[in-house]
Design goal:
Helix content is 41%, strand content 11%. It is of the alpha/beta class. Strands 1-2-3-5-4 form a five-stranded mixed sheet. A three-stranded antiparallel sheet has the order 6-7-10. Helix 15 (431-446) packs across helix 17 and helix 16 crosses helix 18. It is elongated, with a radius of gyration of 32 Å. 37% of the residues are buried. The structure holds glutamic acid. Glutamic acid (GLU) binds at residues 11-13, 45, 225, 239, 243.
Length: 513
């Protein structure tokens, strides 16, 4: 481990919503920084203007902040309470809704463009890089020939032999060119350390003379990323496995600049249960989609943390708060092999979090979901109060695995049920016996005072009245109150809907019987 202060970064390109894979990368960076007293930086890599998506940067920052993976430094939403006031906060020139915080800024690559070309020029001066004027047509032909000859496609260094005078002349004549890194042909294997994989050795023979600056003067990802990691004093580069093939190129760049190579950690791929690579085509992968469906941010964080990491040492603990994760996280417990994204596990974890939410908070969190449901919208006003929703939430809490499912199994809390008379009699009982039970329940419940109308007391009273033959008494009452084949016990429904609705539903059942 380095003796420099630990600094890590999440460096998304703003090309869409925050994906669960991106969240995992951000989270592992965050946890590693927390565990080691380091700094977690959010940097935006937007040099590929062709992939620019309006609003994507703001969306990414909002998703991270919304879920609680909040950077110490870098890019923040301008009006967000999480934005640290302290150091060198400045508003972004290109993105009006965004502020940049920290002394290593700007943190948005499109605001650092001037800097990269200068670094590439330095490499030309030290003969580590060169100008290349080869046309697309020539490069295509070269690739076709190499492929036909079963050789790895790779630039043939034609322009490396151009004299300085010729290069100057062609630039002055306005000929387009790129800057390439010169990877020596006799270069030894490239070795770098990865916190997940240990020492990784890559044969340098197939490594191309990568482009550092494109014809339009923009840096490539490789150059911008290495320069920024150096200037921002990043000690550990933690990113998805899909970036592993870029790492030897980066190591060569660090060497060309004579800069210290950071440590790397490449996180395992995310897989579907059939082991195919998790992709946007297979359903939802955006963090916002999960939140919109009623997954709690804390459950999603917990789930994503376990995609490739486990607490180790024989621990079977699966429910972790963010501070617990920060305490327990360690790269020695991150797997190399792909992590299966199992939404059943997410549902299970979400249910664990829902079960322990204080009821007032659960009620607050389910309310926006209720407001989208027709049965709620058409309910009477006294069934839309915070108190009423709290009672519904309490009854639903045990079985709820996503917030958005609130009330779906219990529409009778909001609308009067339609009662099917054939459902009312308990097994083998006739109409008379059923009518007797309903009347007994009606008289009993009509005689209760407000103070007896609690969930517990109603339960005691009804069970006592039912005696040995519970079904005879409780089944018709339950059906009268719910209209359903399955529902919570009658005392719970009576408690939620209150005395008046309880009595009127019993009378309605008596009428239809
Ligand atoms: N901008 C790259 C991305 O979109 C970052 C890769 C890296 O972390 O180096 O994921």
């Amino acid at each position: 481990m380095t003796d420099r202060p630990i600094r890590v970064r999440f460096a998304p390109s703003p090309t869409g919503m925050l994906h669960v894979g991106g969240l995992r990368t951000a989270l592992y960076n965050f946890l590693f920084a927390r565990k080691n007293g380091g700094t977690f930086i959010l940097r935006i890599e937007d040099t590929d203007q062709g992939r620019f998506v309006e609003g994507a940067l703001e969306g990414l920052v909002r998703s991270l902040e919304g879920i609680g993976v909040i950077p110490d430094e870098g890019v923040f939403l301008r009006d967000d309470p999480n934005t640290p006031e302290r150091v060198a906060s400045r508003h972004s020139e290109t993105y009006p809704g965004v502020s940049e915080v920290g002394t290593y800024g700007p943190y948005i690559q499109s605001e650092r463009l001037k800097l990269y070309a200068g670094y590439a020029e330095k490499l030309i001066e030290s003969k580590k890089a060169y100008r290349c004027f080869c046309s697309r047509e020539r490069l295509d032909l070269l690739r076709e020939k190499q492929t036909a000859d079963h050789e790895a496609p790779k630039y043939d260094k034609l322009c490396l032999s151009l004299s300085d005078e010729e290069v100057s002349r062609r630039i002055a004549a306005g000929e387009p060119s790129v800057i390439r890194l010169d990877v020596p042909e006799d270069r030894d294997d490239i070795v770098f350390h990865d916190l997940v994989r240990g020492d990784v050795t890559i044969n340098a023979r197939n490594i191309d003379d990568q482009i550092l600056v494109k014809t339009d003067g923009y840096p490539t990802y490789h150059l911008a990323s290495v320069v920024d990691d150096r200037l921002m004093e990043i000690t550990h580069v933690i990113r998805g496995e899909e970036w592993l093939p870029s790492t030897p190129k980066h190591v060569l760049l660090y060497e060309a600049f004579d800069w210290q190579v950071p440590e790397f950690a490449h996180l395992p791929l995310l897989l579907n249960p059939d082991k195919s690579k998790l992709s946007k085509r297979q359903g939802d992968v955006a963090v916002e989609d999960y939140l919109a469906k009623g997954y709690l941010p804390e459950a999603l964080i917990n789930f994503v943390a376990l995609l490739g990491w486990n607490p180790g040492q024989g621990s079977t603990k699966e429910v972790f708060t963010l501070p617990e994760l920060s305490e327990a996280f360690d790269f020695s417990q991150v797997n190399r092999s792909g992590a299966v994204f199992d939404t059943r596990k997410l549902d299970w974890l979400n249910a664990q979090y829902i079960k322990v939410l204080p009821i007032g908070e659960l009620a607050t969190r389910v309310t926006p979901f209720l407001r989208e449901k027709p049965f709620f919208l058409s309910a009477s006003e006294d069934r839309k109060t915070a108190d009423y929703i709290g009672r519904v939430a309490l009854i639903g809490q045990e079985r709820l695995s996503v917030l958005s499912a609130i009330g779906d199994e219990h529409p009778f809390f909001f609308a009067e049920p339609v009662i099917d008379p054939s459902l009312l009699p308990w097994k083998g009982n006739d109409r008379e016996m059923t009518a007797e039970s309903l009347e007994k329940a009606r008289i009993l419940l009509a005689g209760l005072s407000d103070s007896e109308w609690t969930r517990e007391r109603l339960g005691e009273i009804l069970l006592e009245a039912a005696g040995e033959k519970r079904g005879d008494f409780l089944w018709p009452l339950r059906v009268a109150l719910s209209g359903a084949k399955q529902s919570p016990p009658p005392q719970d429904i009576a408690w939620v809907i209150g005395k008046d609705a309880t009595l009127s539903r019993i009378i309605e059942a008596q009428n239809v019987l």
